[in-house]
TrEMBL record:
The protein's role, per its UniProt record: Reversible hydration of carbon dioxide.
A GO term, aspect molecular function: carbonate dehydratase activity
Keywords: Lyase, Metal-binding, Zinc
Organism listed in the record: Pelomonas aquatica
Cofactor binding note from Swiss-Prot or TrEMBL: Binds 1 zinc ion per subunit.
Protein name, per record: Carbonic anhydrase
EC number of the protein: 4.2.1.1
Length: 227
């Protein structure tokens, strides 16, 4: 009779080992964690299993509040994302919201190439909207560059969307310090890259977006363009 690991015992064993090692390395860690959650950062990233938020920035549990979805999208109709943002800003008083995309994102590939993969096609229309805005420029790039260029464009647009949410706008209006950031993670080298979309005030949203967009396009010159 063939046995199958329906109970995922290997994962449970990993958890026991991790908990024991963590407590041994820092006695009382879990007792202190139980009493407080005071992260300074909200990470809004892709659900891709290769992009583990806490590990990438070397932060412990309790130090990073995280929301993830396919292709790191922030849209005004997504009550899940908005609820996370509202709790993070209003209750936890986070100071930084970081929108993090990553290279070779499968959701971005599907949006770029109009691939039909199922229900998620509807979600990826948000990324296709970004593609459509920049389609003429994207068409000037070599095929190998288009996916990562759209990954970065998507981060900039989703960071701008985050700036325009009522959660962030209300925080700024009452003088609460909240900074929006746009980053991209390189699967090929494990490094995070700041796309220079950094905004701490409602009046700075569009100027920051335009500067970041210009810098992005400068990194992806079309073939034959002057260096």
């Amino acid at each position: 009779m063939t046995t199958t690991n329906h109970e995922l015992q290997d994962l449970l064993d990993n958890n026991k080992r991790w908990a024991a090692e963590t407590e041994a390395g820092e006695p009382g860690f879990f007792s202190r964690l139980l009493k407080q959650q005071t992260p300074q950062y909200l990470w809004i990233g892709c659900a891709d299993s290769r992009v583990p938020a806490n590990e990438l920035v070397d932060l412990l549990p309790g130090e990073l509040f995280v929301h993830r979805n396919v292709a790191n999208v922030v849209v005004h109709s997504d009550l899940n994302c908005l609820s996370v943002m509202q709790f993070a800003v209003d209750q936890l008083q986070v100071r930084h919201i970081i929108i993090v995309g990553h290279s070779n994102c499968g959701g971005v590939v599907a949006a770029l190439k109009d691939l039909r993969v199922g229900l998620v096609d509807n979600w990826l229309r948000h990324v296709q909207d970004v593609r459509n805005v920049h389609q003429e420029w994207l068409d000037t790039l070599p095929g190998a560059s288009r996916v990562n260029a759209l990954c970065e464009l998507n981060v900039l647009h989703q960071a701008r969307n985050a700036c325009h949410t009522t959660v962030v706008q209300d925080a700024w209006a009452r003088g609460q310090p909240v900074v929006i950031h746009g980053w991209v993670y390189g699967l090929h080298n494990g490094l995070l890259n700041d796309l220079a979309m950094t905004v701490d005030d409602a009046s700075a949203v569009e100027p920051s977006f335009r500067r970041a967009l210009a810098a992005l396009k400068a990194r992806y010159p079309a073939p034959g363009a002057p260096a």
